Amino acid sequence: MAKGRRRKSQGRERWLWVIVAALILWGGYQIWQVRRQIVGQLHSRHRPHHKAAAAKVAVVTTSPEINVSSSPPVPADTELIAQKPPHPISPAELRAAEQFLKQGIRLADGHHLISARFRFERAWHLVAGHQTEIARPIRKWLSKINTHTLLAGVAYPRDPWIRLIEVPPGATLERIAHLYRITPAMLLTLNPLLNPRDMRAGSWLLVILGPFDARIDLSHHRIDILLHHQFVLSYRVKIPGVINPRPGDYSVVRSSLSAPVQGMPEFIGMTLAGRIHGRQETVKMSNVDSPNIDLVMTTHSLAELVRMLNPTFSVVRIRP
C-alpha cells in the first residue's frame, strides 16, 4: 500500500518537472522570437538602393514621465512624397486631417508629446503631396514636437525611433553610428557627455533608428527632413541661379565645415551626386551665395543637414 503511494507521488513529481521544463523552453523561445523581430526591424530600416546610390564620402565635422496614447505609429509608405499626388485630396481626408491636427494640439498642450506626434503624423500622411492650407500648421507642430523629443537627446516612453543601447566591447563612435544609419555628429548630439576616444563597454547610449532622408521642393523653396518617410523638420532653401537643379534622387558625396577666418562667416558646403536619366549630375549647396552654388541655405539649417544625412544610407530627392 505504502509502495503504491510512493510510486504515485514519484509520478506526480516527474510530471511537475516536465511541466517546469516545458515552461522554461517556451519562455526561451518567446525571448528568441522578440529578439529576432527587433534585429529584423533594425536591419530593414534602410532601403537596398541606398547603398547602390551612395558613393565614397569624406565628411569633415568638427522630462519628466509623460502619459502616452496606445496608438501605434502610422506605417510608412514607400511613396508618400510623390512628385504628383495619385489623386486629389478628398473632403473626407481633409476633415480627418483637421481632426487629427486638433487632437494633436490638445495632446501637446497637455504635454503628451509622443501621443501628439502620432496624431500630427497621421494628419501629415493625409495631406502629404497635396497643396493645402492645413499642411503648414501640421509642419509647424511636427517640427516643434520633434525638436523637443526626437532630437532632444531624451528617451521618451513609446518613442518608436529612439533606443537606449549598451555599448559592446570594442565599439567605436563610427561603428555604432553606421550600425544605426546615422552620422557620428548626430550620435554626439544625442549624447553630449560622450567621449568618442573613450567608449567604455557597458555604458549606455541614446541612438536614433536611421537613416534620415531629405526632400527638396524647388517650387516652394523648401527642404524637408524625413525619418523613414515621417516628417521631422523643414528648412527654407534659396535657388540663386537661373537654371534649377535637375529633379531626381541624389546621395551626399562630400560635406565640409570651416571655422571663421578674419571675421569671415563659417563656411559650410555639401555636394550631392546622382545619375539622372543616364547622366551624372551634381548639386552644390552652401551657406554662402556664389556663382557656382546651386542651392543656398542658412548656416544653421545647412549645419543641421550635414549632421543628419548619412552619406552611405541617406537619399536626397529633388522635386520640381
Q: State the separation between the terminal residues, measured CA to CA.
A: 93 Å
Query: Helix/strand-derived class?
Result: alpha/beta
Radius of gyration: 25 Å
The ordered string of helix (H) and strand (E) elements is: HHEHHHEHHEEEEEEEEHE
| The CATH fourth-level homologous superfamily of the domain at 212-319 | L,D-transpeptidase catalytic domain-like
CATH topology of the domain at 212-319, what is it called?
Answer: L,D-transpeptidase catalytic domain-like
Q: What characteristic shape results from the CA principal axes?
A: extended
Flag low-confidence runs. Answer: 41-85
Biggest pleated-sheet summary? 9 strands, mixed
Strand content: 15-25%
Mean pLDDT reading: 79
- The total of beta strands comes to 11
Q: What's the CATH C level of the domain at 212-319? A: Mainly Beta
Total number of helical segments? 8
Examine the secondary-structure arrangement and name the CATH architecture of the domain at 212-319: Beta Barrel
Helix content: 25-40%
What would you say this structure looks like, in words?
By secondary structure, the chain is an alpha/beta fold. Strand 7 and strand 8 form a beta hairpin. Helix 3 runs antiparallel to helix 4 and helix 4 runs antiparallel to helix 5. The longest helix has 42 residues. The chain is extended and about 105 Å long. The N and C termini lie far apart (93 Å).
